[in-house]
């Protein structure tokens, strides 16, 4: 990324409906009560995109990600109409990656084939565990057998870029059970493996009433380490703190986030980030969270709940929080291009973090060590520049 050159631009599309709401989920998702208003929602998405023509001017979309919620609940006809509308409004990079999220209970073999025919070429399946008892404790509505069936159907449908999501640190889960989950996940033969720690997010049922026997501290670390060894042995390369890839199938859309690229976010509750170079600033936006309020934008001409510019400290913090999640970290020129600041801003903090073993000893790149990855929040806090003192009255 060069100075004064816009970073890559992704497009995130939020589809907020699910068959049921999981007790650990803090995403803007809503259990399906009645029929989903697909046509109206797609019209709202495209009208929202029409309002972003200034941001799109002269730029190409480098990746598209349909997340949720469970976007695979939408019919292939609605998804096709949406993608055709995007193509008519945007310059799309050749061969761009288009991802859709799905759950095993939300798709069947025929549905997956029709989704693939729309041009969607990457599938991310939320499995979380291959243990039926663990799935029940998580509030999931599929079984391990259904997960295997869905992955097999996805392969038959032509998805050769396939991610599976798993979690560890589940209620009543031992390190041996966490490893067994990963082994069963590896057997699915995906090209990408996302492996997250279960966290108790504010506002969720699990936060209000935590499940019994959740791992913490050394037990969690033992789980993660043992699972990582299994993934390494299976040929998965860990390129981000929670992401493993093989066959060169890293997630292009998420890489753009972690490299602090730009992205438009459309759909209920979607976030966006844009870089403006003259004068230099980063702006963020968030759409109305309520699906109903978002769709009312068709009449009101108002889809966004808020736009704002980041402070200098927020810009540096966000960059570090994303870039240090990557195994390769970042170099000093990328830092300056992405934040508008010289690396000297945080040079003393970098030296201190290296001395404490939180960063790799390298003069070329700034990378978290294994210890730094384990305590990433603390590392980011240590690297934050001191805020400017308030002017005296």
Instruction: For the record, give the distance between the C-alpha atoms at the N and C termini, rounded to a whole number.
Output: 41 Å
Question: Strand order across the biggest sheet?
Answer: 9-10-8-7-6-5-4-1-11
Low-confidence stretches: 389-393
Strand fraction equals 15-25%
Overall strand count: 14
Q: Please identify, by name, the CATH architecture of the largest domain.
A: Alpha-Beta Barrel
Top CATH class of the largest domain: Alpha Beta
Task: Write down the overall mean pLDDT.
Answer: 93
Architecture overview:
This protein is an alpha/beta fold and 393 residues long. The chain contains 17 helices and 14 strands. The protein folds into two domains: 9-256, Alpha-Beta Barrel (TIM Barrel); 311-385, Arc Repressor Mutant, subunit A (Orthogonal Bundle), CATH 1.10.10.920. The strands form three sheets. The protein has a nine-stranded mixed beta sheet with strand order 9-10-8-7-6-5-4-1-11, sandwiched between helices. It is 38% helix and 22% strand. The model is unreliable at 389-393 (pLDDT under 50). Strand 9 (237-240) and strand 10 form a beta hairpin. It starts with 8 loop residues before the first strand and ends in a 10-residue tail after the last helix.
């Amino acid at each position: 990324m060069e100075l004064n050159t816009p970073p890559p631009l992704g497009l995130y599309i939020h589809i907020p409906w699910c068959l049921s709401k999981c007790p650990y989920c803090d995403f803007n998702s809503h259990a399906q009560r009645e029929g989903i208003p697909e046509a109206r929602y797609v019209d709202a998405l495209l009208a929202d995109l029409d309002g972003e023509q200034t941001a799109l001017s002269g730029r190409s979309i480098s990746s598209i990600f349909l997340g949720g919620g469970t976007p695979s609940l939408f019919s292939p006809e609605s998804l096709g109409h949406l993608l055709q509308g995007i193509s008519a409004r945007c310059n799309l990079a050749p061969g761009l990656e288009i991802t859709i999220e799905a759950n095993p209970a939300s798709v069947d073999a025929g549905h997956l084939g029709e989704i693939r025919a729309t041009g969607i070429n990457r599938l991310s399946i939320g499995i979380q565990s291959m243990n039926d008892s663990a799935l029940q404790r998580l509030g999931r509505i599929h079984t391990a057998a259904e997960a295997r069936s869905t992955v097999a159907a996805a392969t038959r449908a032509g998805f050769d870029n396939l991610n599976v999501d798993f979690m560890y640190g589940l209620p009543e889960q031992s390190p041996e059970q966490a490893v067994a989950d990963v082994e069963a996940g590896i057997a699915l033969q995906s090209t990408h493996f996302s492996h997250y720690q279960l966290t108790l997010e504010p506002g969720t049922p699990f936060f209000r009433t935590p499940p019994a026997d959740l791992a913490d501290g050394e037990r969690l670390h033992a789980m993660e380490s043992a699972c990582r060894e299994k993934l390494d042995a299976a040929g998965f390369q860990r390129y981000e703190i929670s992401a493993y890839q093989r066959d060169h199938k890293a997630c292009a859309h998420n890489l753009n986030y972690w490299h602090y690229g730009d992205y438009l976010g459309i759909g209920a509750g979607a976030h966006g980030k844009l870089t403006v170079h003259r004068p230099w600033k980063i702006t963020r936006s968030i759409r109305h969270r309520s699906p109903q309020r978002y769709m009312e934008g068709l009449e009101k001409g108002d889809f966004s709940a808020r736009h704002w510019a980041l402070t200098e400290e927020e810009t540096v913090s966000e960059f570090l929080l994303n870039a240090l999640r990557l195994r390769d970290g970042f170099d000093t020129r990328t830092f300056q291009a992405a934040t508008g600041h010289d690396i000297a801003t945080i040079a003393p903090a970098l030296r201190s973090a290296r001395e404490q073993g939180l960063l790799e000893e390298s003069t070329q790149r700034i990378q978290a060590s294994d210890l730094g990855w384990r305590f990433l929040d603390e590392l980011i806090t240590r690297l934050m520049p001191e805020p400017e003192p308030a002017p005296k009255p």
